[in-house]
């Protein structure tokens, strides 16, 4: 029997959207390993007040590490605490979300524990007691299965791939002591800059509206913002590399091999030709809708639904229809 530790993220005391996904993935893995799921949340004083509900997705125990120095994400502090608790718990596997924070934290924990990391995983199973991770390679053109023979098996899962599934468990909350001395941490977090307002991060959004050079001018992004607003609060905004390089949009919105990898349930590619660099970041989306005036654009080869036409005519009508459907729901 091997227990699984799910490291879940919080922001300002509230669990982030990926928390349930990580616990869900951990619960499925623990069922195969014959162990329990322990969820770990790090944050400032009062964090324990916001962890209700993780038991519904399979967490037998929710461990909360509260300390003023952990109120905001700190790379050294978080890595030290997670590594110690992973070692003390003797877990068979430790799971992270492959978010911006998770991509920074998980390799640090791997270095602390001196074990490999299977990153950006889209599937998990167990073969004769060994965790086997499925992950995309060659810009998403193929998938490979990696046997993680180290203990614990460290894995980061791609957001929006492991859909939350209820699996009732005790969800007992335990506060764990933070024994690490923050004065010894070699780095100091000076400040955080909020970008994007209340719009979900493109890597975590369940719906993404992305634009490319076909938008012609940064001022035309208002059309994409209207479609995003019509789709609801779960939708995020994305952009192609060409648009970001031109300075139209911030790098945080870039989808692609040199940007962010996304796997939303629904992806809109508006005015995006579909260069391999962009496809590498979004081809694992559940449903892809493309709008482009070029019928031979590569994006149509991966799209589930394609509209050949002038986006400046199509987009307002699409937004109107989406808004009408949502208003009537």
Question: How would you summarize the topology of this molecule?
Answer:
Elements: E1 4-8, E2 10-11, E3 14-15, H1 19-33, E4 37-43, E5 61-66, H2 75-89, E6 93-97, H3 100-113, E7 117-121, E8 123-127, E9 130-137, E10 142-148, E11 153-157, E12 172-176, E13 207-211, H4 221-231, E14 235-239, H5 241-245, E15 266-270, H6 276-282, E16 287-292, E17 305-308, H7 311-328
Parallel strand pairs: 1-4, 1-6, 4-5, 5-12, 6-11, 7-11, 13-14, 13-15, 15-16, 16-17
Antiparallel strand pairs: 2-3, 8-9, 9-10
Helix pairs in contact: 2-3, 4-7
Helix content: 25-40%
| Helix-strand sequence | EEEHEEHEHEEEEEEEHEHEHEEH
> For the CA atoms, what is the radius of gyration?
21 Å
Return the CATH architecture of the largest domain: 3-Layer(aba) Sandwich
Q: What's the overall average pLDDT, rounded?
A: 93
Question: What is the total number of structural domains?
Answer: 2
Gross morphology is: globular
Give the structural class.
Answer: alpha/beta
Our count of helices gives 7
Instruction: Report the sheet-strand fraction.
Output: 25-35%
Strand order of the largest sheet: 7-11-6-1-4-5-12
Terminal residue distance: 47 Å
For this structure, the CATH topology of the largest domain is Rossmann fold
Q: What is the highest CATH level, the class of the largest domain?
A: Alpha Beta
Task: Walk me through this protein's architecture.
This protein is of the alpha/beta class and 329 residues long. The chain has two domains: 4-184, 3-Layer(aba) Sandwich (Rossmann fold); 207-328, Rossmann fold (3-Layer(aba) Sandwich). 26% of the residues lie in helices and 26% in strands. A seven-stranded parallel β-sheet has the order 7-11-6-1-4-5-12, sandwiched between helices. A five-stranded parallel β-sheet has the order 14-13-15-16-17. A three-stranded antiparallel β-sheet has the order 8-9-10. The chain is globular, with a radius of gyration of 21 Å. It starts with a strand and ends with a helix. The relative contact order is 0.12. The model has no long low-confidence stretch (mean pLDDT 93).
């Amino acid at each position: 029997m091997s227990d699984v530790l799910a490291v879940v993220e919080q922001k300002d005391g509230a669990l982030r959207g990926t928390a349930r996904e990580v616990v869900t993935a951990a619960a499925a893995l623990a069922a195969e390993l014959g162990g329990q799921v322990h969820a770990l949340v790090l944050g400032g004083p009062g964090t324990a007040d916001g962890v209700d509900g993780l038991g519904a997705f399979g967490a037998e125990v929710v461990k909360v590490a509260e300390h003023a120095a952990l109120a905001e994400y700190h790379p050294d502090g978080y890595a030290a605490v997670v590594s110690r608790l992973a070692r003390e718990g003797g877990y068979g596997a430790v799971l992270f979300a492959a978010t911006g924070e998770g991509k920074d934290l998980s390799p640090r924990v791997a270095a602390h524990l001196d074990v490999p990391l299977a990153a950006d995983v889209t599937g998990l199973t167990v073969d004769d007691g060994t965790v086997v991770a499925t992950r995309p390679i060659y810009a998403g053109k193929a998938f490979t299965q990696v046997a993680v023979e180290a203990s614990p098996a460290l894995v980061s899962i791609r957001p929006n791939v492991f859909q939350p599934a209820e699996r009732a468990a005790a969800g007992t909350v335990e506060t764990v002591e933070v024994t690490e001395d923050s004065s010894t941490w070699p780095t100091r977090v000076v400040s955080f800059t909020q970008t994007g307002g209340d719009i979900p991060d493109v890597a975590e959004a369940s719906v993404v509206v992305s634009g490319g050079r076909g938008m012609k001018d940064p001022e035309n992004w208002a059309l994409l913002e209207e479609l995003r607003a019509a789709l609801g609060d779960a939708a995020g905004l994305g952009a192609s590399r060409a648009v970001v390089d031109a300075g139209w949009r911030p790098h945080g919105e870039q989808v692609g091999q040199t940007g962010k990898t996304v796997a939303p349930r629904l992806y809109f590619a508006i005015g995006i030709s579909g260069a391999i660099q962009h496809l590498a970041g979004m081809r694992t989306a559940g449903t892809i809708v493309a709008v482009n005036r070029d019928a031979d654009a590569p994006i149509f080869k991966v799209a589930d639904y394609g509209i050949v036409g002038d986006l400046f005519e199509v987009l307002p009508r699409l937004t109107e229809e989406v808004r009408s459907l949502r208003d009537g729901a």
